[in-house]
Design a protein that fits this description.
Elements lengths: L13 E5 L2 E4 L4 E4 L2 H4 L8 H13 L10 H14 L5 E5 L2 H16 L3 E5 L8 H5 L16 E4 L4 H8 L4 E6 L2 E2 L5 E2 L2 H13 L3 E5 L23 E4 L10 E5 L18 H16 L2 H17 L6 E5 L2 E5 L5 H11 L1 E2 L1 E2 L5 E4 L7 H17 L4
Parallel strand pairs: 3-15, 5-6, 5-7, 7-10, 10-11
Antiparallel strand pairs: 1-2, 2-3, 4-12, 8-9, 11-12, 13-14, 14-17, 16-17
This protein binds pyridoxal-5'-phosphate (PLP).
Pyridoxal-5'-phosphate binds next to helix 4.
C-alpha cells in the first residue's frame, strides 16, 4: 500500500530529539524553531515527561471512559490552577479539530442557534464544523459546508456588531493570535468589546488556543493579554508535547448531560500522564515567564533584520514577514544553518514556534543565522 500523498515534505528524517534539537538520519543536529508545528512545549524528550509516560505505560496505558479515571481529574485540577480557570470544566479529546467540534456543538446546545462568526485567514482544523469556520476554500469540500458562517475582517468591531445585532449568532470563534494565518494578532480592545457584545446578546465566545495556548505567548492563554474570559477555550498541541491530547474547556454556565460529548480515546491514561507531566514542567521551570522574556528579546533582535518587512508576535509565537516568498530562506536555514522553521498561509511569512524551553543562546543563534543569511543573499 502507498501513503495517501497529502503532505509536501521537507528532506529531513528525524530519528532522535532532545531539548531544542532534532537529530536527523543525515548525521546533523537541527535547532527546532518550528516545534513540530507548535506542539513541542517543554522541549523534546524532557526527562520528567519520558519518566511519567513510561511509568504510566508500565501500570495501565488505556481503559475506556466507562470506568473511574482519577488521572483526568488531576489534569483538570492542575490545568485550572495554572491557567486561572479553576471554576471551568474540562472535556478531554484527542486533537484540535475535535476540541473545536465539541466547542461548537456545546455552544449550539447552549443557545439553540447555529450561525457562527469567524475571521479572515482563520484555521480551526479539518473536521466538518472546524472546516466550515476555516477560511480556506481549498480544504473545504461541499459536505463540510454544514451551517451558516460569516468571515469578517480581523478587528472590525462594526462588522461584528452588525452581525450580532441580527440576533441569530450562536458563537464567535477566534484565534487570539492567528497561527497558520501568519501570526496576526487581534487587538486587545477589539477582544474586550467582542467579549462584551457576546455577553449582551447570548452569543458564545470561543477562543481557539490550540496553537497560542499553554504558555506560548507568555501568558497561559493568549486571550489573557486582553484580560477577557471566553465562554469556551480549546486546547491541543502544546498540551501533550507530542502525545495526542486535546481539550474543550467550558465555563460553569455549561451544564453537562450524559452522552452529549464522548470519545473512545479521549483522556486515556497515557494522555493524562503526558498532559500532567507537561503542566508539571511548565510550572516547575516557569516556562510561561521564560517564553515571555526570551520572546521579547527575540522580537527586539529580529526587528532590525536586513530585508524584513514586519516582525509580529507575542512570546514564542513569532511571524517574520518579508517582501518576497520565504521558501528559499527557509531552505537555506535548514541546509546552511541547520535550523528548522515553519511556514504560514501567506507565502511571505516565516513562522517561529520553538519549544518554550529555548535558551538565550539558542535564540541568539537563530537571530545571528538570520542576520548572516539575509546579509549574504539578496532574496526575492
Ligand atoms: C489554531 C488551530 N486550531 C485548530 C487546529 C487543528 O488541530 P489538529 O490538527 O490537532 O486537529 C490547529 C492546527 O494547526 C490550529 O493551529
Amino acid at each position: 500500500m502507498e501513503l495517501f500523498d497529502v503532505y509536501p515534505l521537507l528532506d529531513l528524517e528525524p530519528v532522535k530529539a532532545k531539548g531544542s534539537y532534532v537529530f536527523c538520519d543525515d548525521g546533523n543536529r537541527y535547532l527546532d524553531f518550528y516545534g513540530g508545528h507548535a506542539v513541542i512545549s517543554i522541549g523534546h524528550c524532557h526527562p520528567h515527561y519520558v519518566d511519567k509516560i513510561t511509568e504510566q505505560l508500565n501500570n495501565i496505558g488505556f481503559y475506556s471512559n466507562s470506568v473511574q479515571n482519577p488521572l483526568q481529574k488531576k489534569v483538570a485540577a492542575k490545568l485550572g490552577e495554572l491557567s486561572g480557570y479553576d471554576d471551568y470544566q474540562l472535556f478531554l479529546c484527542n486533537s484540535g479539530a475535535e476540541a473545536i467540534e465539541n466547542a461548537l456543538k456545546m455552544a449550539s446546545f447552549h443557545n439553540g442557534k447555529s450561525k457562527v462568526i469567524s475571521f479572515n485567514k482563520a484555521f480551526h482544523g479539518r473536521t466538518t464544523s472546524a472546516l466550515n469556520i476555516t477560511d480556506k476554500d481549498a480544504y473545504t469540500a461541499p459536505i463540510n459546508q454544514s451551517s451558516e458562517v460569516v468571515f469578517l475582517k480581523m478587528n472590525d468591531l462594526e462588522a461584528v456588531e452588525a452581525e450580532i445585532s441580527q440576533g441569530d449568532v450562536c458563537a464567535v470563534v477566534l484565534e487570539p493570535v492567528q497561527g497558520i494565518g501568519g501570526i496576526r494578532l487581534f487587538e486587545d480592545s477589539f477582544l474586550q468589546q467582542v467579549s462584551q457584545l457576546c455577553q449582551a446578546h447570548d452569543v458564545v465566545l470561543i477562543c481557539d488556543e490550540i496553537q497560542a495556548g499553554f504558555g506560548r505567548t507568555g501568558k497561559f492563554f493568549a486571550h489573557q493579554h486582553a484580560g477577557i474570559k471566553p465562554d469556551i477555550i480549546t486546547v491541543a498541541k502544546g498540551m501533550g508535547n507530542g502525545f495526542p491530547v486535546a481539550g474543550t474547556i467550558l465555563s460553569p454556565d455549561f451544564k453537562a448531560k450524559h452522552g452529549r460529548l464522548g470519545s473512545t480515546f479521549g483522556g486515556n491514561h497515557l494522555a493524562c500522564a503526558a498532559a500532567t507531566a507537561v503542566l508539571d514542567v511548565i510550572q516547575d521551570e516557569q516556562l510561561i515567564e521564560h517564553a515571555a522574556q526570551i520572546g521579547d528579546q527575540l522580537l527586539d533582535a529580529l526587528a532590525d533584520l536586513p530585508q524584513i518587512k514586519e516582525v509580529r508576535g507575542r512570546g514564542l509565537m513569532i511571524g517574520l514577514e518579508f517582501p518576497f516568498p520565504i521558501k528559499e530562506l527557509r531552505h537555506r536555514l535548514i541546509e546552511e544553518e541547520h535550523i528548522i522553521t515553519g511556514i504560514a498561509s501567506d507565502p511571505n511569512v516565516l513562522r517561529l514556534l520553538p519549544p518554550l524551553t529555548i535558551s538565550e543562546k539558542e535564540a541568539n543563534q537563530f537571530a545571528t543565522a538570520m542576520q548572516n543569511l539575509l546579509t549574504e543573499h539578496q532574496l526575492q
